[in-house]
Amino acid sequence: MTSRSVPSQDPGPGAGASGETPAPSPPSTRGDGSDSDRAQDHRLRSVGNTGSGGADRTSGSSGRTSGSSSGTDGSSGSTSGSADSTIRTGSGSERAVRISGGDRIRRADRARQVADILRQQIHTGTFEHALPTEADLAAEFAVSRNTVRDALALLKDERLIERAPKVGTHVAQRKYDHGLDTLRGLKETLRGHGEVRNEVRVARRVDPPPAVARRLRLEPGEQAVYLERLRYLGDLPLSLDLTYLAPDIGAAVLTHDLETNDIFALIEEISGGPLGSADLALEAITADAHSAATLQMPEGGALLLLERLTRLDDGRPVDLEYIRMRGDRITMRGSLFRPADASDWRLIR
Predict the structure, then answer these.
(1) Helix (H, G, I), strand (E, B) or coil at 239
(2) pTM of the full predicted structure?
């Protein structure tokens, strides 16, 4: 049985955002980053499963197209569901794989790719105020205008851009870089962007949780000093810091100005020497109701949780922090180098 495909309806650059499309046209062959172009470059040979009587059967599609194609991203019609295909291994044999169909999925993939690049350009100041037009972005990324609209919608949801008819697309806000390759406090990190100040919410001696006591190598029954600070850049709340300090260092820290100083600078002044190293873990979490209200951000918004254990130059741990940073205003950035002795260039065949 011969399978037929339904040609897409490409609205072209002049189509409106409503998704209305003109009459069906032949499958697109233009270099618009379309799925059909890419599929021709990367097509896997479809192989049917042989059932009784040797009939060919393809999973989910059976050689039929499902409904009409989306016709919104310059691609040809696609089959619904999944298909059984094969790839050739290094030994020359073939093995079956499952691949998913659907122009919508591939269009969403392309929109994320465009959004990732535009997001970085926004953060690095490529666009001073306004972004290029939809038509210019479509030409630059070789995608349809609808794909560009999807990418811009992602950035708008992140509150990075603002869009309005007859006004265009403009940068709404930028993020601040926080380095990962040097040991610095927030005030040192954001020097040049404005004044960092601290709202000290808690500063007292506490009986630390056992896990904290072990990390700080405290003796049984030994107390720690606990600090909770809401940290601002100007009037913008950026991070909520929960800090446990070794008792001798912490007791001295409590006698200093905590509203304008970084803890790192105070520790070095008190200890009479530089900090040495830190172990850190960074993960993404969502803002609970309390953290969201404190940081003036939406509940469920993105937070970066940094756990950092800092040691003096002699290796003694003195500072354990749990720092919640606004994911919409801070980007963690660093430079990494691959050690020569760790390289393994051997390929698995």
Answers:
(1) strand
(2) 0.63
